[in-house]
Protein 1
Amino acid sequence: MSRVNIGKQHPAVYQELASLNAAAEQAARAAGLEPTLIELVKLRVSQLNGCAFCCRLHTRDALQAGETADRLAVLPAWWESQYFSEVEQAALALAEEVTRLSVPASEGWDTGALSPDQVSAVSWLAVVMGAWNRVAIRSGYRVAP
């Protein structure tokens, strides 16, 4: 038994994660983060964690929120492009730092572009997305064409 769908095995715990996800998204919106940026953060965290299920899900969600194919195409190398605003760059760098648990923290994202509320919101988005990635990968969520 290599894969067990942990969400189905313990649905109450899964629902708690879903509630935490909703709270993190609400905090992000309240902090003034655009829906496209919220999806970019989720997608970038999923890329770093290698979660195919969440990459596909949040690519689709980003497109539905109005994101462009060009920006999604360069997201893995966002820092080399001129597609992203100062706020988006800071949020993506922060999400990467939270995901990778850089020790000591690089704080290269701390350009002043994000408010303390936004720093907290992006951090929570990255933490929760990392948890979702682990649920999907551990459970063996299928990603077929």
Protein 2
Amino acid sequence: MTKQEKADDIHRILEELYPTVPVPLDHVDPYTLLVAVLLSAQCTDVRVNKVTPALWALADEPRLMMEQPVEDIRAIIRPCGLSPTKSAAIKELSRILVEDYGGEVPQDWAALESLPGVGHKTASVVMSQAFGVPAFPVDTHIHRLAYRWGLTTGKNVVKTEKDLKRLFPEESWNKLHLQIIFFGREYCPARGHRMKTCPICGPYGRRSLLNKEQ
């Protein structure tokens, strides 16, 4: 079985299991999605979704957020971890959005990635989920699964993103990265993985030289 054949089968399995997928982070517009994704760094989506209602009650748009004391933002988002860095980034990116972009989140890769606290993965999520631009956000979880499934030999998320973009059609990227996240949580966790019953690793885990057991 070639790597492309494996990718095609994995795509088919994910489509069967997750024909529709919601965005895991609660949000109402590009700005709240941007902030939620920033908060999700080294934090679970579940915890972020518990924290953001209080944050939106404080300020749910850039102009209001830039006016808040950073200490007040930090107090709310503390459960997400890295609160000193994240709170400063949220306040500063809000100021930049107001002063440079009319209070709107820019639909532009370079502009997004230049914002405080916003890296390529965060920009990819916003571009794909807020604006519908084809992107393949790769975090450590997707990187782990792609390596486990033999879809990449990359040692970092940059190489993994390139490999996945080559294997899957562009029109599938925005949905597929969410399908992989949901599949990983339900069937293919880092710990306690039951290979024999995993819909993907069961058929391929022991037969493909491209796949390494984790």
Protein 3
Amino acid sequence: MMQELRCYYNHRQHLTEQIARYTLKIQKSLRLMNVRLDVALRDVTGKSGLTIIEAILAGKRDPYYLASIVDIRTKKSTEEIASSLQGNWRAELLFELKSCLDIYRYFNSALKECDQVIEKLLLQYTPTAVVSKEKEKLFKSYN
């Protein structure tokens, strides 16, 4: 079991490293187009960041439109965000951005799948009495 778990864990580490690598490549593609999404938002691959990237790839390039689709909980103003999103849209960098986003999403889905396999393995080898007692404790703490 430990060898199997170690194998899954090492694969998970690899997936996590690839996600980080492609997040940086996404940021670099944007930066080369003079789009500073990393300055406008805290997380380029968060909900708002991915929404903006998808809009850019769909052909919507107006900085004020892009700033308007950001989640309302974002701390920066629409003006600040729009000023960071005025880019020069180069076809080769848009292609690279799309490719990196596709690969980023693939590694994210592979990571979720790996996490599910690890969880199944851990549950399979966890004694049922321990699981039952933990569930019982959780149930009592909610009541």
